[in-house]
Amino acid sequence: MRRILFGAGLLVMAVAAVAQPHAPTEKPMVTAARLNAQLAVAYLKENEIAAAQEKIDKALTQNPSDPGVQVSAGLVYERLEQPDKADHFFAEAVRLDPKNPDLLNNYAVFLCRRGRYDKGQKLFEQAASNPAYSTPEVAYANAGVCARSAKNLPRAEELFRKSLAARDNYPDALLQLADLTFGRGAGLAARGLLARYFAVAPASPEALMLAIKVERSLGDHPTADRYRQQLMESFPDSPQARQLRGAVSAE
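^ that's the sequence the OP posted. Answer follows.
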């Protein structure tokens, strides 16, 4: 479950960093670079990697001083499995615009995916503490996922709670905290967090599977069975449904 946040909205944030309204007096090359970076991200979303590389390389030639172009290059070269180049571009984006929380969040996601947890968490928290950042709950929740990946569970819990302090019904933080809480044996608390999650978000295979485990641990097998039925009917091809079918076959 700890990987569900990384990458969520990352391409959207890159587009937001690139797709800024241009001034009437803006140089044509600056506008062209921004448009090519937008196209590169759009091609990434369609999994057209070669086309994305062509567009971002052109954008870098046209205007390498645009932080949006640099962060888009980071995304492209990460997908090309060239992490050193990707790191350079993400870092350059932050250097060019060090107070931009979206750029910090993008770089932090990359760092945590590469196992550089301490630096990633610091950047997430730097982004979240920026008063201009409209969604600090996202950065705090991502920092929590990063801390879980680093096996620092107390810190992860603290960060998920910070996320919920910023927005008390943020679904990703509720689900992550429920999973973490259940993992340390607090079934009733996990049930409460899941109830809050289901009140604000559609059921997902991850949430339903966790709910099954929580209710079974609390001895409420009828409720667990209802969640199981919902999972099997709504998400029959999910890994969680396959896992449940395998468990039944093994009995």
